[in-house]
């Protein structure tokens, strides 16, 4: 019987359910997530538990569906590969719906929309948005929409990270000039560091 693959994908569009044939029926679902994307999924510093909007949503789906959930924290790059190889029963994590991914996964109806935005240090005055990133070093998480969109910017140098949190840390430390990421994610990091970070310009993807 097909296992139910539950995907919450955020970027240009968020979705919640994906069906992929991958083995036997189960009442305990192993759910992979890259818990470095507040407010959607992240590790609580005090409890060390994975929390966030997507986590609450997955728990609600599990309660309604009558199955248990075990969350597995896995970095972004191997997440899709692990899903394709049936290492996990499901994933709920930030991912843009693309035509290529539609070839491998069946997406549910979207439940959230978020575009890409540029984040810079609070004292930065020369970067005012995507169109002023030429000649700048821009951080983004590998394989994400942020990385894909940055590669399209003429003159910008892309530096990729396995963990988006490290990109924001390098930004605050002056190692890179900007970060391109999903707007809600960027606002989450800015909210934690209002004296160090700000957005530059408007959201520049639909």
Explain the overall architecture.
Helix content is 25%, strand content 29%. It has a five-stranded mixed β-sheet with strand order 14-13-15-12-16, sandwiched between helices. A three-stranded antiparallel β-sheet has the order 1-3-10, with no helix packed on it. It contains six helices and 16 strands. The chain has two domains: 3-112, Periplasmic binding protein-like II (D-Maltodextrin-Binding Protein, domain 2, 3-Layer(aba) Sandwich); 116-200, D-Maltodextrin-Binding Protein, domain 2, CATH 3.40.190. It is globular. With 206 residues, it is α/β, with parallel strands linked by helices. Mean pLDDT is 85; it is low at 1-20.
Secondary-structure topology with pairs:
Layout: E1 3-5, E2 14-15, E3 18-20, E4 28-33, E5 36-37, E6 41-43, E7 50-51, H1 53-65, E8 68-73, H2 76-84, E9 90-91, H3 99-102, E10 106-107, E11 110-112, E12 116-121, E13 137-141, H4 145-151, E14 157-161, H5 164-172, E15 178-182, H6 183-192, E16 197-200
Describe the structure using short key phrases:
206 residues; D-Maltodextrin-Binding Protein, domain 2; three-stranded antiparallel sheet; five-stranded mixed sheet; 16 strands; 2 domains; alpha/beta; disordered N terminus; 6 helices; single chain; globular; 29% strand
């Amino acid at each position: 019987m097909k296992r139910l693959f539950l995907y919450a994908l955020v970027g240009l569009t968020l979705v919640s359910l994906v069906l992929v044939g991958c083995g036997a029926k189960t009442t305990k679902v192993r759910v992979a997530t890259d818990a470095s994307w507040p407010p959607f999924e992240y590790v609580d510093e005090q409890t060390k538990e994975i929390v966030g909007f997507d986590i609450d949503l997955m728990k609600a789906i599990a309660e309604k569906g009558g199955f248990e959930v075990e969350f597995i924290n896995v970095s972004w790059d191997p997440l899709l590969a692990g899903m394709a190889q049936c290492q996990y029963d499901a994933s709920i994590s930030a991912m843009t719906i693309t035509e290529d991914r539609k070839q491998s996964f069946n997406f549910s109806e979207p439940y959230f929309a978020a575009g890409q935005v540029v984040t810079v240090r609070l004292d930065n005055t020369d970067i005012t948005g995507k169109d002023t990133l030429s000649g700048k070093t821009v951080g983004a998480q590998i394989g994400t929409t942020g990385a894909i969109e940055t590669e399209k910017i003429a003159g910008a140098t892309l530096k990729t990270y396995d963990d988006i949190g490290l990109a924001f840390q390098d930004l605050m430390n002056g190692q890179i000039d900007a970060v391109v990421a999903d707007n809600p994610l960027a606002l989450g990091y800015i909210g934690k560091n209002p004296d160090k970070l700000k957005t530059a310009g408007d959201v520049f993807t639909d």
